[in-house]
């Protein structure tokens, strides 16, 4: 008998995200390519939310969030790599429903 597919449910304030493509190599405003290995400062990256626990209050599935990728737990699900973190480890949320935004848009 084959293993049944089990749906993943995040617990408490945990958030399941996947780093968006293009989070590595980037270009400066002058067009110079900056490799992902270049470290000037601790670089935050954007990720898409794929799951949230019942106690997460500020993020929903589908939101884009800003986070530091190196201090999170990594898990592979069906060949894709995801990060698991607590909601309080997020630095910003980009969503259509922003109530107190900065006036900046992705």
Short account of what is shown:
This protein is mainly β.
What does this structure look like?
By secondary structure, the protein is an all-beta fold. Helices cover 0% and strands 35% of the residues. It contains no helices and eight strands. The chain has a six-stranded antiparallel sheet with strand order 6-7-1-4-5-8, with no helix packed on it. β2 (26-27) and β3 (33-34) form a beta hairpin.
Q: What topology, given as strand order, has the largest sheet?
A: 6-7-1-4-5-8
Average pLDDT rating = 81
- Number of distinct beta strands: 8
- The number of distinct helices, counting runs of at least 4 residues, comes to 0
What's the alpha carbon Rg, rounded to whole Å? 16 Å
Main sheet overview: 6 strands, antiparallel
Helix content percent band: under 10%
Helix/strand structural class: mainly beta
Strand-residue proportion: 25-35%
- Give the N-to-C terminal Cα separation: 47 Å
- SSE series: EEEEEEEE
Give the low-pLDDT segments: none
* Inertia-based shape: globular
């Amino acid at each position: 008998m084959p293993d049944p597919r089990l749906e993943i449910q995040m617990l408490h304030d945990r958030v399941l995200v996947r780093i968006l493509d293009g989070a590595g190599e980037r270009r400066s405003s002058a067009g110079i390519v900056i490799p992902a290995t270049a470290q000037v400062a601790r670089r935050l990256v954007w990720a898409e939310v794929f799951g949230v626990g019942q106690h997460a209050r500020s993020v929903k599935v589908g939101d884009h969030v800003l986070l530091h990728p190196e201090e999170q737990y990594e898990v592979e699900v069906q060949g894709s790599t995801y990060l698991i973190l607590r909601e309080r480890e997020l630095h910003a949320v980009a969503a259509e429903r922003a109530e107190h935004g900065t006036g900046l848009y992705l």
